[in-house]
Amino acid sequence: MPRRLITAAIALLITVVLASPATAGLETSKDQQIADESVLTSSDVPSGFEQVPPDDDDTTPASKVCRTVRRGRDALDDAPNAEVEFRTRGDASGSALIGNKVAVFETTKAATRALRAYADDDTGRCFEQNYRKIFESELAGADGASVEVTSSRYAPDGGDAAVGYEVEIEASAEGDSQTFYVDLAVYRVGRTIDAFAYFNSGSQPPSDDVAAMTDAGLGRLEDAL
Fold first, then answer.
1. If 0-12 CB within 10 Å is exposed, 13-18 middle and 19+ buried, where does residue 29 land?
2. Under CATH, which architecture does the 3-224 domain have?
3. What is the distance between the terminal CA atoms of the chain, rounded to a whole angstrom?
């Protein structure tokens, strides 16, 4: 598999859900503090991960099927929020990434609207469309390039309400193939949204690690509220 594909996947896959850096106004300093105190920390993630600045490039297609995902993401960006990202060093044998974003809304109703955008019927198709676009772009011109993307929706445990998606990407080029996995989960906790994105190449993100990190983040958010 071309090295550039590994690098591009690490850099871009999380931005579908978490697209822009944290913003805050002075009038919402208390809510900003809640967000800052609730995101994952280095002590929450497995060894081998390094914290890096979140990638703020918007890679979501301007298509009708992604309209609700963009609306949900914009709502998270407009509220006081904090975002963190952790990566392993990608190489030919594999790579992994963890992203977490917490947004604090004025009301539970506003947070519910944001979550509803991620639970739209088109959301899974948007993820499939976007990841296919990313990989096809990176493999353009490579011999025997092909990309297949599938997604499935699930109901995560935790929070007051939640929606999750598991995405599998099978990419082939230059006589080699590799499978990439993305686990996306968005939780509402009171008037907040806690979004997690886990990416792994070669195998699914370890379920025990995902559960431990998610529980740590949700617990910290509940304590901050």
1. exposed
2. 3-Layer(aba) Sandwich (3.40)
3. 45
Domain ranges of the chain: 3-224
| pLDDT per position as a tens digit, 133-176 | 888 887 887 788 899 999 999 999 999 999 999 999 998 888 88
Half-sphere exposure in the Cβ direction for 36 (13 Å, CA)? 8
For the residues of the chain, what is the DSSP string, one character each?
A: --HHHHHHHHHHGGGGT--S-----GGGHHHHHHHHHHS--GGGSPTT-EEEPPP-------SGGGHHHHHHHHHHHHSSEEEEEEE---BTTB-EEEEEEEEE-SSHHHHHHHHHHHTSTTHHHHHHHHHHHHHHHHHTT-TT-EEEEEEEEE--SSSSEEEEEEEEEEEEETTEEEEEEEEEEEEEETTEEEEEEEEEESSPPPHHHHHHHHHHHHHHHHHH-
Neighbours of 56 (CB within 10 A): 13
User: Looking at this protein, which amino acid is placed at residue 48?
Assistant: G
To the question of pTM greater than 0.85 for the whole model, the response is: yes
